[in-house]
């Protein structure tokens, strides 16, 4: 049974943008697309109230919003949404289902059989970025499959270079894929994912690696700038060595390496404006308490201007 590109659909603008992105990704990979709409069970007091009709259950799960936008080509059911995606993305096999349960639990379970799980994230008013809710964070923190977060309003043209007149166009070359990597503790799963995504898109890969001076160097820095340059050269060499086998395997991918002092989160967020996809890692922590995804990944998730792929690794 082939793996799928799986999308959690809830009728919101961000989940619809994510579904369109997932359909494009399914076509790139030659994989089927699976839509899942999660319906939360009614609270017991509500479920047992005889005077509350079926409309209450629909409204509890956001049915009112979907009904209000039923004329936009998406319909009001997962099957109708799937039919629309088949029309807009010919050749992509699309299935749909409705599941009752807690959204993060259902989506984490669904991710086990997925090549990729795709979720929507609401855009932050006044900012170019995401507002990742509790469900999205819980899924990202607990699934060991790659998860992609797509903001509301994301269009295919946003992932491509402007045409010669400066107008966004989905017919031009993809923007580069952006990878944040820790060259001192690299992980093959994260790097391979980024190279493969760049190869599928026929575009380049921009790799950012941020580093900090060892504590025993910091106090000598103002008096000896050579120390900084020596560490910078060493880190650049480490990054080059880390990427060398991947350059050989993906020889058609044009790679740009950037090694710099300081945290990479701000650089990644800034560079995301010119990227088709941002790829970051998340170390797997088998801890039942709390949600931890790492400060850099957390910052990128909330503020990236492009879709973000979070790849779990040991």
Architecture overview:
The protein is an alpha/beta fold and 314 residues long. Helices cover 39% and strands 21% of the residues. Strands 1, 2, 3, 4, 5, 6, 7, 8, 9, 10 and 11 form an 11-stranded mixed sheet that branches. Strand 7 (177-180), helix 8 (188-201) and strand 8 (205-211) form a beta-alpha-beta unit. Helix 6 (103-111) packs parallel to helix 7 and helix 11 packs parallel to helix 12. The protein is globular. The model is unreliable at 52-60, 62-69 and 123-131 (pLDDT under 50). Belongs to the universal stress protein A family.
Can I get a quick summary?
It is built from twelve helices and eleven strands. It has helices spanning 13-29, 44-47, 54-60, 63-68, 78-88, 103-111, 134-142, 188-201, 215-218, 225-249, 264-271, 295-303, and strands spanning 4-8, 33-39, 94-100, 114-123, 130-131, 147-151, 177-180, 205-211, 255-261, 277-283, 308-313.
Oligomer state of the chains in this structure: single chain
* Run of helices and strands: EHEHHHHEHEEHEEHEHHEHEHE
Care to count the β-strands?
A: 11
- The share of residues in helices is 25-40%
Q: What is the tally of helical segments?
A: 12
Q: What is the residue-averaged pLDDT?
A: 84
Shape: globular
Estimated share of beta-strand residues: 15-25%
**Rounded to an integer, what's the Rg over CA atoms?**
21 Å
Uncertain spans? 52-60, 62-69, 123-131
Calculate the terminal CA-CA distance, rounded to whole Å: 26 Å
- Secondary-structure class: alpha/beta
Largest sheet: 11 strands, mixed
Domain UspA: 1-151, 174-311
Family: Belongs to the universal stress protein A family.
Organism: Streptomyces chlorus
Protein name: Universal stress protein
